[in-house]
């Protein structure tokens, strides 16, 4: 069963939405067609009802995807947006990287893939 993902792809839109809805931003750096832990995170966490319910109430979801296969290439404009986000928030080039930030883009916490239940992962997002 798949839940609709409401992933924002533009950082400025995400910040605006987070401010309007008084939510935090969850920025996810992924390699959707080559990074096995990214794919697992998507299937085991992001697509679950538990995470979707939590995100709907608390988070604006922002995805910066870096696919490698030609047929999965993003439009040039999106590639540039994602690269700019990576230069600011993922200087180490980790995949997946999950960044929790406030509505102004200030980083609160970062984490990567962890083999946890959706509920445990939700808790881990907020832990230092």
TrEMBL record:
<dbReference type="InterPro" id="IPR036249">
    <property type="entry name" value="Thioredoxin-like_sf"/>
</dbReference>
<dbReference type="Pfam" id="PF13899">
    <property type="entry name" value="Thioredoxin_7"/>
</dbReference>
<dbReference type="InterPro" id="IPR051099">
    <property type="entry name" value="AGR/TXD"/>
</dbReference>
<keyword id="KW-0732">Signal</keyword>
<protein>
    <recommendedName>
        <fullName>Thiol-disulfide isomerase</fullName>
    </recommendedName>
</protein>
């Amino acid at each position: 069963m798949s839940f609709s993902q409401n992933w924002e792809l533009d950082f400025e839109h995400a910040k605006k939405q987070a401010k309007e809805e008084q939510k935090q931003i969850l920025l996810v750096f992924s390699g959707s067609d080559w990074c096995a832990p990214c794919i697992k995170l998507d299937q085991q966490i992001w697509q679950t009802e538990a995470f979707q319910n939590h995100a709907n109430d608390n988070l604006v979801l922002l995805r910066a995807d870096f696919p490698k296969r030609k047929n999965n290439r993003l439009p040039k404009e999106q590639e540039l947006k994602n690269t700019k986000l990576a230069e600011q928030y993922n200087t180490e080039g980790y995949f997946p990287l999950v960044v929790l930030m406030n509505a102004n883009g200030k980083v609160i916490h970062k984490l990567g893939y962890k083999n946890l239940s959706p509920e445990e992962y939700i808790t881990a997002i907020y832990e230092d």
